[in-house]
Amino acid sequence: QANLHEGYRLFPLRSNDFERGYLDVLSVLTEVGAHSIDTWNAQFQFMKKHNDTYFTITIMDELTNRVAATGTILIEHKFVHKNGLVGHIEDIAVDSSHQGKKLGIRVIEALKFIGQATGCYKVILDCASKNIPFYEKCGFAPKESQMAWYI
Ligand code: ACO
Question: What is the DSSP string of 34-69?
């Protein structure tokens, strides 16, 4: 909380964030699809059931009570590194009207903290080349290559 601008607050994802525009914020990233409250609830409940694996945070704009920024860290369990844990950062999005106010960096700091606190030995992410300078400012360094297979 200490590093957030006045007027913003950090929360874990909450069941009523559907009404607070969570999916609208995600749409700065990619196609979100036409959700109903039922499709939202189904996914929210799945993630809640696996709340040692999925950690999604939001930064709220207190003035409007709308989601301004979000991000997720997924905790992967491995055999290597002696049952090691790896944190995967996913779905970082800052609403266009709130970009450039250091909310993105705050989201990443909070997710790095969760990765550390859960015992991960590393935290990794995939990003567009244009976002490399942003992630470098967040303490990440380029490593290897990203590959994709779309179905
Ligand atoms: N290129 C260069 N520098 C950048 C960029 C960029 N694309 N974006 C931010 N920065 C810099 C800022 O200038 C700032 O630098 P400073 O500390 O020297 O002043 C620093 O990075 C922190 O910037 P923030 O204000 O925290 O950035 P913002 O809140 O706008 O969030 C983000 C950045 C997440 C990329 C946002 O613009 C966004 O949501 N973009 C669209 C969606 C997207 O691309 N998400 C990332 C997908 S990758 C993934 O999910 C793992």
Answer: ---HHHHHHHHHHHHHTTTTEEEEEEEETTTTEEEE
Give the number of the atom of ligand 1 that is nearest the alpha carbon of residue 71. 50
CATH number at residue 13: 3.40.630.30
Inside any domain, residue 143: no
Complex confidence, ipTM: 0.96
Residues of the chain with pLDDT under 70: 1-3
Residue 5, pLDDT score: 81
31 CA to centre of ligand 1 in angstroms: 19
109 domain residue, yes or no: yes
| Domain total in the chain | 1
Residue 2 lies in a domain: no
